[in-house]
Amino acid sequence: MMHRAMMPRTSEEKGMAVNPDAVTSDQVRAQCESFRHMFIGVQEEVGKVIVGHKDVVEGVLTAIFVGGNILLEGVPGLGKTMLVRTLSEVLDLEFSRIQFTPDLMPADVIGTNLVTEDPDTGRRQFEFQRGPIFAQLVLADEINRATPKTQSAMLEAMQEKSVTVAGEHYQLEPPFFVMATQNPIEQEGTYPLPEAQMDRFLFKLTVGYSNLDELMTIIDRTTGAETPKPAKMIDGPGILAAQKLVRHAVVAPHVKEYAARMVLGTHPEGDMAPAIINRYVRCGASPRGAQSLVLGGKVRAVIDGRYHVSYADIQAVAKPVLRHRLLLNFEAEADRIDPDDLIEEIIKATPTQAMAPASAS
């Protein structure tokens, strides 16, 4: 059941759920606690509709509160689309859904210029017709069923939060997120996402099958006379304020260095790469991987009641950050290597104190 204290009651309170400009230690602790309660409240509201998958919900919310895009992978029918739609209701964001198919064109995503005629003067002119990308929470459903040309049309929106059509630049309304779902690439009719687009997803989260108890609950919720309705917990301005608060979390130099060394551990033939990476990885993570580790670690720290990032926070987000940034070679595919297993080896091979400052010893 949702705690009343967690839910803002007015639009002004929603927008000021957290104050990132707090300066005293007491104010910082109070704002972190406010953020933590709001985060838990959102989880509870999503849990009214989505059964199980708590790690996936936490990962999605973590990415949202640092402004990142999310890729959800799983076979059809596991509730990926329902999760994104439910989040749009709880977060009170403008929602848009794009169903990706092989015949979808870039203009179907971002929009196009159409010829219009003024009914009074008869004068014709070009007018931009906005596509479904002009929303705050965009669901790119089954994104890997579209051709690479159409997939690439999302790149500017995902990175720059804007689109360009016929030389005209259009800014997307903040906060803006792309949440994409994809079927496993082994399924018929799928296209692998371009490496450049994969790198623009902060997290890749894997949605697995439900267990027996979860399936029974799903049946009860979806076949009865009434379906649960989640409540709105925060709006766009509140999300932007929360993102600013999270970015103020402190990352000590040795923790920042630990994240950087973990990313260097993904580079084959590099000085910090374990032997298994040299054997199975063709290309490792870019600097975006290090940025994502730190940003994800900041959210983990704040929801844990801390304002500083620990080694454990970096380790906790390593798999969703790195699993889609490891490009495996043919030998890895032949041996059915799971990227998560490689990340486990990187964590083991990256000591926390290897290059810590002298004062920490």
What descriptive keywords fit this protein?
single chain; 361 residues; alpha/beta; Helicase, Ruva Protein, domain 3; 5-stranded parallel beta sheet; two-stranded antiparallel sheet; 11 strands; 43% helix; 15% strand; disordered N terminus
**Average pLDDT rating:** 83
What is the CATH third-level topology name of the domain at 249-352?
Helicase, Ruva Protein, domain 3
What is the element string, with H for helices and E for strands?
Answer: HHHEHEHEEEHHEEEHEHHHHEHHHEHH
CATH superfamily of the domain at 249-352: Magnesium chelatase subunit I, C-Terminal domain
Characterize the main sheet.
Answer: 5 strands, parallel
Query: Structural class from helices and strands?
Result: alpha/beta
Instruction: Give the class-level CATH name of the domain at 249-352.
Output: Mainly Alpha
With strands numbered from the N-terminus, the spatial order across the biggest sheet is: 2-5-8-1-9
**Broad shape:** globular
Poorly predicted regions are 1-18, 355-361
Total count of strands: 11
Under the CATH scheme, which architecture of the domain at 249-352 would be assigned?
Answer: Orthogonal Bundle
Strand content: 5-15%
Number of helices: 17
Q: What share of the residues lie within helices?
A: 40-55%
Could you tell me the radius of gyration in angstroms? 22 Å
- Cα(first) to Cα(last) distance is 46 Å
